[in-house]
Every structure is written in C-alpha cells, then in structure tokens.
C-alpha cells in the first residue's frame, strides 16, 4: 500500500469510525469533507471537542450530562419539586425536554436491568433514586422507561421497590400523533383500544 | 426549554450534525457516546482533529490529500512513472489504493464537469493534467472516472483534449466480483456481454 506511515489523517479516520452510526467508509467521507472545510468546520469541531472533553460531567444529583456539578435542570428554581421523571438514558431526558411538556425533575438510571449483561440495581442509579425519594419529598414518580422488554422489566422492578412510598405513573400507550393504523403493530393498536377515551 | 444557555455540548452537537451521514439525532447519540468515553475517545479525537486541521494539505502535484506539500504517492520512487490514473475525488484515489492493483501515479480532478453547477475545465484540475502530461513524460492515461453521466461526460472531454498526445484507457466494465446477474442492471449485463472474454 502507498500509505505505510500511519498519518494523522488515518488516525482521525480510525477514531471517527468508532462513533455510533459511522463506519470506515462514512468516516473517510467525513474526514475528506472536514479537510475541505478545515477552517470553518474542522478547527471549530476540534475546539468544541476539547471543551467538552474538559468540561462535560454527570450531574451528581440526577445523572444528566452537562458542564456543571449540578445540572441546569436540577438547579432551576422555576421547576416543580416533588415530581420526578425516571428515564433510562440522558438521550431520553433530552427527548423529554425537547417535547417541552414536563416541568418537574429527572432521574437518569443509566440503562436497564439485564441479567444477561450482569446489570443489577446497583449498576444503575436505583439506590440514588431511593435516596432522592426519601430526601427530596417526592410525591409522584413517572416511570418514563422505553416500551421494550428490558425497559418494562426495569420499570416493574422500580415500581416494586417504591410503590409504598410515592404515587407511581407511566407514560400513556397509544397511537402516535400523525400515526396511521395500517403501519402500527398489533400491540400498540390493542393498547390504544384498551385505553380509549370517551369523547 | 431547560437549556437556555447554549452549552459547549450543544455547540458540539450542532457541528457534528453537519458531517455527511450524520443528522441531529445521530449527532446527539454520538456526543453522548463521546462523553461516556471522554478519556479514551473524545480527547484523542479532539487532538487528531487539531493535528489534521493544522497539517492537512492538498498535494501540489496530484491533488491528493496528505500532510506534506508533495504527497507520499507522488514522492514514492518505487512507483512507475509515465502511467497516470485520473480520478474524480480523493476518495476514489483512496479506493484505488485499497485495491492495491495500481502502482503508477494519480491525478485528482476534484469533481466532474457540470454545466448546471457552473463547473468548467478550469474549475477542475484539467489544466494541471495537461501540464503534467507535457512535463512528466506520461505515456498512458487511465481515465478511472465514475460510471455516471457526469463522470463519463468529463472522461470524454478529457479524452478529446489529450488523445493525440498519450495512450488512453478506461476501467473495464462488467460483472463485479461476487456479483449476481439477477441483481445487476441491464446496462452492466449488456456491457459485460459485449466485452466477453474467450476462455
């Protein structure tokens, strides 16, 4: 081959190819794109990565990712205390925030229980959840876990642990906004029918 | 929304989302992945980008991308002179090199002719190609442009310009290795039939 010395460009391609959603081919494309846009994209991207590498941290309270010890949501005085939304991952928290429909606090578990992968309650932030329920005068916990087997197993486990201390709820199941029945799975249609609303 | 101050994390997401093959959602996923792997991936990636931003340059001779004024291929004494492979983009050059089947020199055009986009011969590296043919004692030019309308239009234009000075060839058309006839388009099957080889 004609590139015997691993150049900085090859190193960059290899590192980029490790990102989720990118493979070797798309990493090569991305690097060529970045080199063409050296000044306006590659340099700012390098600096933004450096800044995030130095400043990103997990919120000590809820597990959200931010640049402060206690995240913006936990330290926001305008949000309701007492109402706690439990999510699997930071990505789910961000999705809830984009929806803009929730003004309480969050608790990020950091995954789901999984016997196969050896993930027990102590690998997740379940002990911290119990501490918060005791310490923060939480009155309602919304279990906003994914509608997957692992997500719902985890939700049941948590419900079991805390149901005598707080009111529990979960997100409604049904037809998504803009959804077409013909494209929905049987389970969703069944759930939407069971939870039908009187007009 | 709860993230009123644009944090470094948001900046990084926005920049990553501009890469080809990534959108806002995959950029968010990638950033969360990078934050989890701060030490082993994010920091090295930031440094690799910085290095490439500072060192990447186009080879003055052939248009390949590397970290030196004249690229490794152009300055490799073991490669054949006189045989020049013309490709559209650096990505195509890299693909040829991965195949490892060519040991001559390259010339990267930087795109294809396009009346619609206002790309004429002078926007590509066609003048430089003519200079090299005159100056480097090139005897054969392989037009390895893509089998697209634009690629083939450009190949015809170049052939027209230089056919009286050098031997010209193009990559063979036919059935790809591992290819199944049932999945091939009619044009490819026709070309493979016309170029059939006697056993």
Structure report:
The structure is a homodimer of 199-residue chains. Chain A is α/β, with parallel strands linked by helices and 199 residues long. The first copy, chain A, has two domains: 8-55, Orthogonal Bundle (Helicase, Ruva Protein, domain 3); 78-170, Dna Topoisomerase Vi A Subunit, Chain: A, domain 2 (3-Layer(aba) Sandwich). Helix content of chain A is 42%, strand content 11%. Chain A has seven helices and six strands. The first copy, chain A, has helices at residues 8-16, 24-36, 38-55, 90-99, 126-135, 149-162, 186-194; strands at 57-58, 65-66, 83-87, 105-108, 140-143, 167-170. A four-stranded parallel β-sheet of chain A has the order 4-3-5-6. In chain A, strand 5, helix 6 and strand 6 (167-170) form a beta-alpha-beta unit. Chain A starts with 7 loop residues before the first helix and ends in a 5-residue tail after the last helix. Mean pLDDT of chain A is 90; it is low at 1-5. The interface between A and B is large, with 56 and 56 residues.
């Amino acid at each position: 081959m004609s590139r015997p010395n691993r150049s900085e460009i090859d190193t960059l391609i290899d590192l980029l190819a490790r990102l989720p959603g990118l493979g070797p081919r798309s990493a090569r494309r991305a690097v060529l794109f970045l080199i063409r846009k050296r000044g306006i994209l590659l340099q700012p991207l390098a600096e933004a990565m450096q800044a995030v590498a130095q400043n990103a941290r997990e919120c000590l309270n809820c597990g959200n990712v931010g640049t402060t010890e206690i995240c913006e949501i936990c330290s926001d005085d305008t949000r309701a205390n007492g109402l706690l939304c439990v999510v699997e991952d930071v990505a789910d928290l961000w999705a809830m925030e984009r929806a803009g429909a929730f003004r309480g606090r969050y608790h990020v578990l950091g995954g789901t229980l999984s016997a196969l992968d050896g993930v027990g309650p102590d690998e997740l932030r379940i002990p911290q959840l119990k501490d918060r329920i005791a310490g923060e005068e939480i009155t309602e916990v919304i279990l906003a876990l994914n509608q997957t087997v692992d997500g719902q197993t985890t939700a049941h486990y948590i419900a079991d642990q805390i149901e005598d201390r707080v009111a529990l709820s979960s997100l409604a199941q049904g037809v998504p906004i803009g959804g077409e029945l013909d494209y929905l799975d049987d389970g969703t249609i069944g759930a939407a029918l069971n939870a039908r609303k009187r007009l």
